[in-house]
Write a structure and sequence with these properties.
Structural class of chain B: mainly alpha
Number of helices of chain B: 9
Largest sheet of chain A: 2 strands, antiparallel
Largest sheet of chain B: none
Number of strands of chain B: 0
Oligomer: heterodimer
Radius of gyration of chain A: 21 Å
Number of domains of chain B: 1
Distance between the termini of chain A: 25 Å
Shape of chain A: globular
Chain lengths: 478, 219
């Protein structure tokens, strides 16, 4: 087990160090893909090892899912990134030196996310998330335009504040565990904290959870802590938007879930469920209304990410085997679909030379392939059958209807509102009089195809082994 | 053991006083000097913990606080301000009186909150944690009440001083040194960002307000 974990973390970091020395952008893009492929293989190898707990690392059914998702999306994004970056170099938006830096940073970010996902020590998990955040801050500002710098600065300030609050929460968890587990490393080890959760100091645990919810909630992008998210998505390079939405938000939510498990294992502590339900619903409803006012295509889908993270937080707040199952499934489906949409959007923005929705018209005439990919992605994300997102949203809504019928009205309403906004915008983008300019783009369609095929298969027929795996992971969450 | 508590309370209390002093400065160099003083106090507090708790590796954190935050960063920011020619007054969003009242309210909030919920914990941890939370909240307040990018960084660094104080006060907490190193990297990046991105060159000021013009709320 340790070899797989070491590989998943070490390959990206080692390759990042190597890529800082590789000059040509074609070679470093190829190196990036190769490194991500090796990481993906070592992620897959986790399927064949038994769950195991060590002092600093843990492998259980839940994080195997996340690591594989992480490395898969990392791999496809590196393929997309190769064609995207090629275009940016041709148009002179990025210099080769910046691209070399970009590839090294991309791999280092993947490594730190894998570190956060496999850590058993809550301090180590925090370090992984902090590093991933800092690297994305730098990447968001890489174009160095005034708006990119502003987005980067805002993300920097809000992200650091979130990180600091999460760290204070981590200290409080340590203090809560100190009485029962003694001083030193055990009181920061996640599985020991979970095992002794009923004996932990209740009032410290409560306060800690509030700090962790606000701290990691900022990173998840829950409203009202979401202000950095649309800027960071719209100003950075599109491959970064894809991993931000598809992976980093997931990793932050994963961190919060680990703490939720500890707090809910203590019957006297506050119930994390209702708080998460409220925050999830606020994000979902707020973001779905905000979708109508967007004029920038990447901002549109950034708000859609807030909406879906809200829905997922709501599902985990409901709890229970079915809602947790649906929440995990929705995390995977959203991550695949949203990154696929950003793959399409990245090429659309390059083809049209702008991100303004008003300036993008008639894609179905000028770029039929891209238009088809974008349409498939938007249909999937707005919850139309037969895609996997429909399945998970349906499960979340039905389980809520069964347990609290009145509560289910709100998420259903939010999803409908968002559905309207997305389809309305999609119609604008695809049809109408084609706008100038319309450059040809060399789009690599493999990443998008792989993602949409997976989402489609999950929607039509979820393989029983995979479903059983999700069920076991949902059981861990209680 | 009693005077071990007294000394660490004294140092933590002085750090809180420095946090209050940061709130009402109207000259940017004064802000830097007081921040440097707070960092020196932090390094003394951490050094004292290292000695009384017999955890010598905490001296690394103390040395880092003294060297990086007490000397290198204030000097670097000082030079940068002189070179960019922005050594003018600090613009405040909220008046000094209101800011100080808010600071008092936040301090009482953290004292009441932490002392009430940690009745089971050891007495030092309780009071140290209460003071640390007050320093953290005052750091937030400073970030909110100033418009200048440099003072926002100083506010964040002062907030982080409170975090390190809390982490070292929690007896036997592992990874504190590693985490304090990680935080130092973060802060160095902050300063580096202002340097490299040369906010002034692009916006003719380090006033964060100038950035507001390009924000994308309506896009």
């Amino acid at each position: 087990m340790m070899t797989s974990v070491t590989l998943v973390i070490a390959i990206p970091f080692f390759s990042a160090a190597v890529l800082t020395l590789v000059p040509g952008y074609r070679m470093s893009a190829a190196g990036n893909m190769l490194a991500m492929f090796a990481t993906f293989l070592s992620g897959i190898s986790l399927l064949f090892v038994n769950p195991e707990v060590r002092d600093y690392f843990i492998i259980d059914e839940m994080n195997i899912l996340f690591v594989i998702l992480n490395t898969l999306v990392g791999l496809t994004t590196s393929i997309f990134s190769a064609s995207y970056i090629g275009h940016e170099i041709e148009t002179g938006k990025l210099t080769p030196l910046f691209v070399r830096f970009y590839h090294a940073m991309f791999l280092a970010m993947m490594g730190s996310m894998n570190l956060a996902l496999t850590a058993n020590n809550i301090g180590l998990m925090w370090v992984g998330l902090e590093m991933a955040t800092l690297i994305t801050v730098v990447m968001v500002g890489i174009y160095r335009t005034p708006s990119a710098l502003e987005a980067s600065w805002k993300y920097f300030i809000l992200g650091s504040v979130g990180i600091s609050l999460a760290f204070f929460g981590t200290i409080l968890i340590y203090l809560a565990g100190q009485k029962t587990l003694g001083e030193g490393a055990p009181a920061m080890t996640w599985n020991l904290l979970l095992a002794s959760a009923p004996q932990l100091d209740v009032s410290l645990l409560n306060l800690a959870f509030i700090f962790l919810l606000i701290g990691y909630g900022t990173k998840i992008g829950l409203a009202p802590l979401h202000a950095w998210l649309p800027d960071a998505h719209s100003e950075g390079p599109t491959p970064i938007s894809a991993v931000l939405s598809g992976l980093l938000l997931n990793v932050a939510l994963y961190g919060l879930l680990r703490f939720k498990m500890i707090v809910s294992a203590n019957s006297e502590a506050i119930q994390p469920g209702p708080i998460m339900i409220v925050m999830g619903l606020i994000s979902l409803l707020f973001a779905s209304f905000m979708l109508y006012q967007r004029r920038d295509i990447k901002r549109l889908f950034a708000y859609s990410s807030i909406e879906h993270m809200g829905l997922i937080t709501f599902a985990f707040g409901m709890g229970g085997p079915l809602a947790n199952f649906a929440g995990l499934l929705h995390m995977a489906m959203h991550s695949l679909t949203k990154s696929a949409i950003f793959f399409a959007v990245g090429h659309v923005a390059q083809a049209k030379g702008t991100q303004r929705i008003a300036a993008i018209r008639g894609l179905s005439v000028t770029h039929p392939g891209l238009a088809l990919g974008l349409a498939a992605g938007v249909f999937a994300i707005s919850g139309l059958p037969p895609f996997g997102v429909f399945m998970s949203e349906f499960l979340i809504l039905t389980t809520t209807f069964a347990r609290a019928p009145w509560l289910a009205v709100l998420p259903a309403l939010g999803l409908l509102i968002a559905f309207g906004a997305l389809l309305w915008r999609l119609q604008d983008l695809l049809f109408g009089e084609p706008t100038e300019p319309a450059y040809p783009v060399k789009a690599s369609s493999i990443p998008l195809l792989v993602h949409m095929t997976l989402v489609l298969i999950a929607g039509i027929y979820l393989p029983p082994t995979l479903a059983a795996w999700f069920e076991r992971a949902a059981e861990l969450l209680k | 053991m009693n005077h071990a508590y007294d000394v660490s309370h004294l140092l933590a209390g002085l750090m809180l006083v420095a946090s209050f002093a940061l709130l009402y400065q109207d000259r940017i160099f004064a802000v830097l000097n007081i921040f440097a003083a707070q960092a020196v106090l932090l390094s003394m507090a951490v050094g004292w913990e290292a000695w009384t708790q017999q955890r010598p590796h905490l001296f690394v954190t103390a040395a880092l606080a003294l060297g990086l935050k007490g000397i290198v960063i204030p000097v670097a920011l000082h030079k940068m301000i002189v070179r960019l020619g922005i050594h003018r007054d600090v613009e405040q969003v909220v008046g000094v009186g209101k800011t100080l009242m808010a600071g008092l309210a936040l301090t009482s909030l953290s004292l009441l909150l932490v002392l009430r919920i940690t009745t089971a914990a050891e007495s030092f941890t309780r009071e140290g944690l209460a003071l640390a939370l007050a320093i953290i909240l005052l750091g937030f307040l400073m970030m909110i009440s100033r418009r200048n990018a440099v003072t926002q960084i100083v506010g964040f660094m002062s907030l982080e001083n409170g975090l390190i104080l809390a982490a070292t006060g929690a007896r036997g907490m592992p990874l504190v040194v590693e985490i304090s190193v990680a935080f130092s990297v973060l802060i160095a990046l902050f300063v580096f960002a202002v340097f490299v991105f040369r906010i002034r060159e692009r916006f003719d000021s380090v006033d964060v307000e100038a950035l507001e013009d390009v924000r994308g709320d309506h896009r």
